[in-house]
Design brief:
443 residues; Rossmann fold; 16 strands; Helicase, Ruva Protein, domain 3; 45% helix; alpha/beta; five-stranded parallel sheet
Length: 443
Amino acid sequence: MAVQTALIVDDEPDIRELLELTLGRMKLDTYSASNIKEAKNLLENNSIDLCLTDMRLPDGNGVDLVKWIQANYAQIPVAVITAFGSMETAVNALKSGAFDFVSKPIDLAVLRNLVNTALKLSDPQIEPDRRSRDSFLGESAAMREIRAKIVKLSRSQAPIYISGESGTGKELVARLIHQKSPRSEKPFIAVNCGAIPADLMESELFGHIKGSFTGAVSDKPGLFQAAEGGTLFLDEIAELPMHMQVKLLRVLQEKTLRPIGGQSECAIDVRILSATHNDLGFLVSENQFRQDLYYRINVIELHIPPLRNRSEDISLLANYFLEKITKENLIENISLGSVALKALSDYSFPGNVRELENILERAVTLCEKNTINADDLQLPRDFSDKNNLDASSQPLEDYLDSHEKEAIQNALQQTKYNKTQAAKLLGISFRQLRYRLKKLDID
């Protein structure tokens, strides 16, 4: 295998020498440039697998070089070197197409992790499968665009914020980004931030040292350590308590963490993907989510549209789920009647793709003669009938409470009284569901 090469762009001789020595020990050949003009000349006349560039250069800045390389040599990953604490600069570089960043003073462990991950993008022997048509179904224009973005985003280390309603497939998108990335052979760890008690969250995420608190009978690595080299997906990140938002921001900025009770920081190599069905921008304006953390995790936003906005995909999805359900239950193939398909196409799907699968699972049980009819779907009347909005016969609050209660009971029945799944189906957090169950006196 040919020796891989790196281009180092920095006007400080000491930094260039440090990087040359470090990369040389990693068996890389290096080229060095002290400004953008020299860097462009080297890129045009040599085969380069990776570029490391300082942000402040005599004839421009690192972002200018990032953009130029993106336009002319998009296959070359570029990492930027930023001054300590200048997260806005790092975020701007990531938005411009930088693969990743490292802060001064340079932590060599962090640098080596970055280089090893970046070089996988240039190694043809570990090129991941870029296709996602068979795993993220849909032929609508929106779905084709999302699949193209997944391929592009898989080449970056930039934090991705996946937005969309509950049930649209945000975790599936996160898994695909991981599977198509150079981290694909390392763990993908998904954590629902709303399902972890607030007093246990720091220990769950960062780990703890034996004896650091009552009950800490042994060392325990956290989810960040479990995802080392891979991807950590923080689902429902809006549920993070404020004190954990501060700690998460520091981990993202420094790429190091300290377990509870630990005496020193340890470098981590984890890509962060996050998601929520809530409007994070609104939560920021209400001071319920930190603006600096929002800015840090939302380097690139990938929005997943609700199913009602891409109804042309319903038939394809329905047939896929029917085939999956019949195979898993070892029963004969079941088809969807034309009237039933029309009913699904007209339905608003507040629970999105997850709700479609639940509806079809129930319909398979109810249908006769291997054909699903409209009645077998048992679509919730209150959601599907847009004209059924007459509240004049009772006070508005009682009317709303009765409909909310019916929606919650339907969700609980569909999920076999799994409250976590019911909350997801309803598009609310587990804590919100628990509050509503108590408020509406639902046993």
